[in-house]
Specification:
binds S-adenosylmethionine, Rossmann fold, single chain, 9 helices, alpha/beta
Length: 237
């Protein structure tokens, strides 16, 4: 399993609550992409933060697309079942644990409640395909993933994220991930407290996509998205 746990990076979650959530209010559909989600603690932490601040009715409009290259082939099953050991839940505040997790028949293992599980779908996806899983996202979260890529790959993936965001959509990365200088004209920084950006310039995005769509970060031949992506649960892109 990849290194991750529930409520890792509390600051980013708080910044999403403070800066992103108010802008989502009133959107009919709130589509969120958690890219490089590992086996699920991050998208479920995000779901909890949203549910804490939204009515049950509004929360039904949220769909979190959790994607990962998933070298184990197990992430989809883990996320769909939503069962996690207590060690991965140590940072979860007790009141949140009580509200959103149910003890299973196996001691020390907890299941995420159905209300959250119904909002999160896993799709197996390679970010270096540079094919977005869909467009029109209100928020893309990508943390502790880009550091594995070289600079050219990072720029290409961030441009792909830009093209997948709706106008004014948000991008959130981990505290140590910088936005490359050459992308500063297509994203605006939302706060100095963390790596929260907002999409700018629809036309710039189209120009960039046209110019760079033929450049690929991998040396292997391009494949169809359907061959690179495997959907679990109810949603297939
Ligand atoms: C350290 S984990 C980060 C998990 C979570 N985002 C977090 O911050 O806790 C990095 C994840 O990136 C995924 N990953 C690495 N290369 C990828 C790629 N090309 N496309 C999609 N996911 C990738 C790994 O499989 C792994 O699950």
């Amino acid at each position: 399993m990849a290194f991750t746990y529930f409520f890792r990076d509390r600051l980013s979650l708080e910044l999403i609550g403070k800066y992103v959530l108010p802008a989502l209010t009133g959107q009919r559909y709130i589509n969120i992409w958690d890219a490089g989600c590992a086996h699920g603690p991050e998208p479920y932490s995000l779901a909890i933060i949203l549910r804490e601040r939204m009515s049950p009715f509004a929360f039904r409009n949220v769909r979190i697309y959790a994607t990962d290259i998933d070298p184990t082939g197990q992430f989809g099953r883990t996320i769909t079942e939503g069962v996690y050991p207590a060690e991965e839940l140590q940072r979860v505040p007790p009141a949140i644990l009580q509200r959103y997790f149910v003890p299973t028949e196996h001691p020390g293992r907890y299941r995420v409640v159905d209300e959250l599980r119904s909002r999160v779908s896993f799709i197996r996806h390679d970010l270096l395909s540079l094919e977005p899983i869909r467009e029109g996202f209100s928020l893309i979260v990508c943390k502790n993933v880009l550091l594995h890529f070289n600079e050219q790959q990072q720029v290409a993936v961030l441009r792909m994220f830009h093209s997948a965001l709706r106008a004014g959509g948000f991008l959130v990365m981990e505290q140590t991930q910088q936005l490359p200088d050459r992308l500063e004209h297509i994203f605006s920084r939302v706060t100095d407290q963390g790596q929260v950006f907002r999409k700018l310039h629809e036309q710039a995005s189209r120009d960039v996509r046209d110019r760079d769509s033929v450049r690929c970060c991998r040396t292997d031949p391009p494949e169809q998205l359907s061959e690179r992506s495997v959907a679990y649960g109810n949603y297939r892109c």
